[in-house]
């Protein structure tokens, strides 16, 4: 049968669509960037699949993207002859939102009642295909998967449901037709059937797309010719292959949005060129905001891999370590086979060399940022510090470089985190160690009796509240010859520089309290190893400390929570 079926959007999708329809996102032009970006991905995928599967019945002769307009019907169609989608693809990819973090995003959205705030949130999340509904009140998508006989027609007004039906004569690839919302005719700013407008948007947002973006134009004035002139709107030059002096910051930013599916500008752009026996170019970005799935199990990581300008894969894990999973971008290697698989890449020596270089370059970029643009660095640290610290455990080779770009909250300044270098510079005469205390929150740590004597003596203590802090402080021996020392562990000898009268005083106190200590030790026998007098407290009567090699209380709690 060929009758159309009506299906419901998944509820998350429905909520996002409602948002798009009553859109508050100020820059509506971006819908075209999203559709072109999808079309470009579809062409990349087709080229690769046709290369790998010689039996695929696909037409790869003239891969391109076309924009078609109809002034009378007020439609704009974005067409590609790429990989296309099966019916199942359409239902899964267009009818639902699989992006991890969607639930969190929607929860935040509920909190943000006013529309300006939700517009800002959308910019952080990125909506992709659904952004069509910012400018269209109906969207029709006709698609045929390369190699398949039958196509699919999908249509929706974005309100809860869509229809889907088979079509016999769909060309290979995907055509998305927007039935544009009525606009004030005077308002050319938003007339998406205007050639000038489309030219402008493509130039601005999609110039670097490596496939031709064509516009079927009107025949020139006075020409009778039946063939309308075809105009290519983009320059198609891969940004990473152009000299960086030639590329504007805006171009880099738009390219970033294409590869990362982010809607915000990146925080930093990093370029790398290697010549010689193993040639490659890299164009990397540090995002300005952490993705919502940064700490989720199913998160993606890694940059895109190209071989001689040909897209090979997304999320190439072999090129980026786990702790730098937020880095986005492209690596284009000249001497790899187009046939490489993820498994081969993991073992490839040259890929490992590239990765080492990329890691060092990212770390050194952050280091430069730290001194040259402290505010940018503060944003970076705020967003990615927690992930980066995993590198202190995982990447022993770069441990020093990572420590160098870390910051920590400290008792020195309630607002501003400190670097280790700054801490060491402030260390008092005779202070041997870098003191720290781990805990669940700054407040909990500041109320801790362990801190009292240190505070009284004016020693600075790092306040470590991330779960990962518990782990690396044990693994990392020190920074610039100074050992890390927990103020909650062992006998922290704060009285080292005291004179003899103090020592005598201490011995006297030891005698005075001997009976009490013996009594307490036996009363608490089952709970503690030892009860001793301490100079570390000033206002609290007692506190519990661990042995130097014990786990900290927070770590103990973590292990217990994990069932160990
Ligand atoms: P994203 O591009 O971030 O994955 P989108 O909402 O833009 O999110 O697109 C959702 C998915 O729909 C894409 O990942 C892709 O699988 C599919 N898709 C969208 N447009 C096309 C197209 N023109 N050709 C083939 N697949 C497409
Ligand atoms: Mg997309």
UniProtKB/TrEMBL annotation:
Gene3D superfamilies in UniProt: 3.30.230.80, 3.40.50.11260, Heat shock protein 90, C-terminal domain, Histidine kinase-like ATPase, C-terminal domain
Boundaries of every Histidine kinase/HSP90-like ATPase domain copy: 27-184
Positions of region (A): 1-342
Main location per the UniProt record: cytoplasm
KW Transmembrane helix (keyword) present: no
Alphabetical UniProt keywords: ATP-binding, Chaperone, Cytoplasm, Nucleotide-binding, Stress response
Compartments, as annotated in UniProt: Cytoplasm
InterPro entries named in the record: HATPase_C_sf, HATPase_dom, HSP90_C, Hsp90_fam, Hsp90_N, Ribosomal_Su5_D2-typ_SF
SUPFAM superfamilies: ATPase domain of HSP90 chaperone/DNA topoisomerase II/histidine kinase, HSP90 C-terminal domain, Ribosomal protein S5 domain 2-like
Function according to Swiss-Prot or TrEMBL: Molecular chaperone. Has ATPase activity.
Record's subunit section: Homodimer.
Family: Belongs to the heat shock protein 90 family.
Protein name: Chaperone protein HtpG
